C-alpha cells in the first residue's frame, strides 16, 4: 500500500491519499488525466474521504513517475557529491508534499541521507533517517526486518555523529577514546533516551523473527550491551534510563 498527498485547489492540504490497489504501470507514453483517474481505481483519502479529480490523479501519478525515474537514476549513480543541501531540502519538501507513505519516497530519502552525510550535514541526515524509521513502522506495523535494521542503522548513525566509533565500543579491551563522547551529558542523554530505545525495539523485532541465537539478533545485542556498559562506566545517571529499555527486551520470553 502507498499514500500520496493531495494538494487541491485553494491551497488547503488534504490528508494522505491511500490507493485502494497498486497503481498499474502506464508505460512510458504521455499520461492523460482520464488514464490517471482510471489507474487510481476510485481510491479515496483514508482520512477525509476525498476522491481525486482526473487532474489531481494526473498530477499525483505524474509526480510519482518523476520520483521513480529520479530514484532509478540515483541507483545507477549515487547523488552523493552531486547535490547541495539546498537541493536536498527542496527535494524533501517536494516529496513530503506529494507522498505521505510511499516506498519510492523511502528509497529517495535513503539516497538523500548519503548526500547529507557527504556534505557533513549530520542533523539533516538524522532527520531523514527518522523519516525512514517512521515509514517502515507505518508500512510494516508487525515484525519487520526492514524496520528493525533501519532503526539499528539510525541508532548507529547517531552514535557515529556524536563521535563514537561503534567498532571500538564493542572491542575488548575497550579503549578510553571509545567512551569519551559519553562524558558529554547531552551525548549520554541522547544515547540513553534515543539510541537505546531504537536498539531495544530492533532487538524485540529480531527476536520474534529469528530468535535470540541468530546472528541478526546477537550482533545488535552486542552493540546495545556494549553501549550500556559504557554508560554505566562514565554516565551512571543516563545508564539507568538506558537499562530500562534494554532490560525489557532481555526479560521478554
UniProtKB/TrEMBL annotation:
**What Gene3D superfamilies would the database entry show?**
Tetratricopeptide repeat domain (1.25.40.10)
Name used for this protein in its record: Uncharacterized protein
Species of origin reads: Alexandrium monilatum
